[in-house]
Amino acid sequence: EKGTYPHYMLKEIDEQPYVMRNIISKYQDENDQIKLDDDIRQAMQEADRIYIIAAGTSYHAGLVGKQLIEKIAEVPVETHIASEFLYNMPLLSENPLFIFISQSGETADSRGVLVNVKQIGHRALTITNVPGSTLSREADYTLHTYAGPEIAVASTKAYTAQMAVLAILAVDTARASGLEMEFNPLQELAIVANAMEALTDKKEELEKVAREYLSVSRSCFFIGRAEDYFVCLEGALKLKEISYIQAEGFAGGELKHGTIALIEEGTPVVGLATQPHVNLNIRGNLQEVEARGASTCIISTDETYQEGDQIVLPRVHDYLTPLVSVIPMQLISYYAALHRDCDVDKPRNLAKSVTVE
Ligand code: F6R
């Protein structure tokens, strides 16, 4: 039930801190250590390469998941769009493990891949919000995202929950392989929950940003580098699916190779600049678009902040920044859709779970 909320989407955005705390409690044992099935741990250990398969927002979570698993557990990971992998399978490693990420657990494109890889004898783990769903039943292992039912078509809390579970899985794998690990995802997710709350408390400010940048524009670009780029893909998807503004996420450095031709006077460009090691680079890209007339809206942290930035995120562990940087994007998309009188929870042409290929 959406209770006093005007839309499920807004309710689900607001539930994210609670979802984080729920995930912490579900994945914590009595000694405050990560609780995970031994057979999943073993499957992760035995894999020489991990293939993450997903669609839409879950694919975007998978892009962040690749970074998490590679950096934390030092296992190579490829993330693929399910519908592409289905008819254009790459050369596989000798001992692959497949991870399917799916809120609904019913996405036909992902299921097609699962059927194929099971047929050739590979093992599969499904990360889903619906245990008992098709992808969960047909895979060897399941990890539950515990986000609670997600009703709005635009996925919000399932995305952050997927990334949280991927971080926990990555650390568990790292520890099992004997890697030194200071990063404690359970503790750090509690900090994420607080940071999310601080951002969901800034609705008025974010509504203003949406009004200022997006009430009349026909298009919008989201640019970032490294992990920020992956979150930009998700920010753009959220905005386009519910507000019908043509929105695209781009890697900051790639803009000048063509897309910058689209920048006109007043084109909104959301810049995500949360990472010190690429801050100067993305700032340069933002100046390039500003020089061509773009109105930039910059999201940074206190570490990367420059005077004039519109949104400053509370600090969380670097690995988990995507869980926080996506929140203003979700809220800006929500308000942009609201200002344009769109049907926020049920955007045109879309279904919550896509059970046809
Ligand atoms: C976007 C959205 C879709 C889904 C995609 C995959 O907001 O909801 O892009 O993410 O259809 O769905 P699941 O995760 O159920 O496999």
How would you portray this structure in words?
There is one protein chain. This protein is α/β, with parallel strands linked by helices and 357 residues long. Helix content is 46%, strand content 16%. The chain has 13 helices and 10 strands. It has helices spanning 8-14, 16-26, 38-46, 56-73, 82-87, 108-119, 134-138, 157-176, 185-200, 203-214, 227-243, 279-291, 321-339; strands at 49-54, 77-81, 96-102, 123-128, 141-144, 219-224, 246-251, 268-273, 295-301, 311-313. It has a 5-stranded parallel sheet with strand order 2-1-3-4-5, with helices on both faces. A 5-stranded parallel sheet has the order 7-6-8-9-10, with helices on both faces. Strand 8, helix 12 (279-291) and strand 9 (295-301) form a beta-alpha-beta unit. Helix 8 (157-176) packs antiparallel against helix 13, helix 9 (185-200) runs parallel beside helix 13 (321-339) and helix 10 (203-214) packs across helix 13. The model has no long low-confidence stretch (mean pLDDT 97). Fructose -6-phosphate (F6R) is lined by residues 55-58, 102-104, 107, 110, 153-155, 237, 241, 353-354. Fructose -6-phosphate is lined by residues 55-58, 102-104, 107, 110, 153-155, 237, 241, 353-354.
